[in-house]
Fold this sequence. Notes:
By secondary structure, the protein is an alpha+beta fold.
Amino acid sequence: MHRHRLILLILILTLALPTQVLAAPQADVEADSALLDFPNTVTFSATLSAPAEIVDVTLEYGSEQLTCGEVIAKAFPDFVPGTSTQASWTWDMRQSGSLPPGASIWWRWRYKDASGAEYISETQTVTWLDDIHDWKTLTEEYLRLHYYGKDEAFARTMMSAALEGLRRNKDQAGMYPDIPINIYVYPNYDDMRDAVLYEPAWTGGQAYADVGVIIMGLSGSDSTWDQNTVIHELTHILVGRNAFSCIGTRPGWLEEGLAMYSEGELDSGMQNMLDSAIRSNNLITLRSLNGGFSELPEKANLSYSQSYSVVKYLVETYGQEKMTALITALRDAKPIDTALLEVYGFDTDGLDSAWRESVGAAPLAIAQATAQPTPTFVPTYVPISGIPAAITATPGIIPTSTGADEGFTGPPLFLTISLICFCLVMLLVIGVIVLGVVVRMGGKGNRREV
């Protein structure tokens, strides 16, 4: 009996032990490299070896970024089967779209031999950046400021502005960086635009929250503008990461309003524009600013100014904790109306009414509350910093994309009805003619039968 129990116990313990998983054989890879032709292409190449003939090669690659799931791109390079083979493949940014300077690219090789064994190489990384400039780096806390063509005193001035931006966003909205933020400062706008394919000619700065990268060009004449640009774009990074949601959206007025508010007070020109719109009752409904801003420069600037004022009202009236709660609710994919109701007790229209009262504007009209957002071909909620007034209007000219007359509403009603009646009469006449022909042909057929 004891012997049987011992055998049973051994069987139970054997079955309970974890099954051993055989790891893939270690890949034999040499000369594994990535050759950058910035900003156009990156070419991956390596020499792969295996005990048996290599019959299948796959390159897995991608960029390190904030996503809703693991994203792995695959390429299938040409190669000559053999126990040792060279593989190479080029990622053409001119076809796929460009990565921002400073993005981290990763890659690895996965291949099989004739015996069925699969090999995976170690993951390699490279920074997507040009090698023609003598880049220097200044590091403070979560910030890495990269620059060239300027002295260290300039770099420290820009770093001080960025650190001030971190402090303001912490105090005003409770936002913190979760990764190191890389700021690439180009000495002029042309160099910055050359670093990113298909960049609009009016762009002076850009923030890429998914990879934690800011690129910007210097005005060359306005140090205050340059420092504010750093703060503005830094805020976009923080909003993009603190309010990141796979299924939710962030209203444009909040995104741009926080970025504008973090810079400090509005400049006199934009403040005068806002004051004039308040006096003349030409404000834009806040619900219309949930999406992209208008393409028209004057409306775009008013959208930025008004968004600034609304965010200022929320922060200075209700405090930082509620703004942090609003950002958290958006991160949790709650619609903006739901988030506002939970945190402040009013929805978008309620906020619009309360803000208008605070600045002495006319009350929000009921008919305006359901106005639809003006569609735009330029997603102004994507972090974009403008260019100084000496170059273009602030905070950035939004180019028009069509020449259509927005006032066209269609033909007059009486003309539409007349056309419809005419078409019906014509159809009736044609039907009568066709029916007559059919009847006549049928009659001729009957006579032939006789």
